[in-house]
Amino acid sequence: SITPYNEDEIWKQGGDIVLAKDKLPLLVDAHIVWRIKADAIEEFMTKYGGLSNENTKEDEVEKLAYRNFMRSPFRNLIRDELSKYAGLEINEHLNDISKDVEVQCKARFKDTPFEVVSAFIGNCAPPSVVTDEIARKVASTQELQRKQTELEIAQKQEAIKTAEGKAAAALEME
Prior knowledge:
Layout: E1 5-11, E2 18-19, E3 25-36, H1 41-47, H2 60-82, H3 94-108, E4 114-125, H4 128-173
Antiparallel strand pairs: 1-3, 2-3, 3-4
């Protein structure tokens, strides 16, 4: 069938992981939309096992084709692209990474009966343990900055009182 199929690849916490350049584990949702090329159905049926699955349910042949021929290359492309970036910088580059993944997917399957319509990364983030720790660190840094500002204010107020006291003492001596 030349109907487009959408496949979701999800890396969850505690399962198969994707590592960023700095070895930060990532939770990733990636998606690929593909179909069998209209002019390559015969090639698909003869070279990719379509004929051996005649008694399968509708769309099952295509799902098997994805699992057997496309899934690993797609997942490897995702891993390879994300491993080029530091974990906390990935979201700044997510559009570019998705474009690169799509271009590479299209090139990878160009000479096969499979056409990649689109491929992209929908979500990419460190596990909640990491983001919670980052939030705590940011809150601690903000609290430290607030206390530093309070200290500077108190020191200036003390300096003002000291200067006022010296000025008052100087006036009394006159």
